[in-house]
Amino acid sequence: MATQIVMDHTGDSRHNFNPADEKALREAQLRFDALMKSGYTAAVRDASGQPTVVRSFDPNAEETLFYPRLVGG
After folding, report:
1. What are the backbone dihedrals phi and psi of residue 70, each rounded to the nearest 5 degrees, phi first?
2. Structural domains present in the chain
């Protein structure tokens, strides 16, 4: 089971999906694309456990974290 975690001003929401399920995989791809288009940044952990920014959907990632663009001021 893979998870997409979306951080926002209310906390976070988790979207689990089975990468072997074609419909669930397509929904996860669409969610990834929509979040990236709206300005979110996506990150996955590399083999050493460090977060790495990604710019394209990886169906093999166990966990993808999305966080909104930070606005300073």
Report:
1. -85, 135
2. 2-67 (3.10.20)
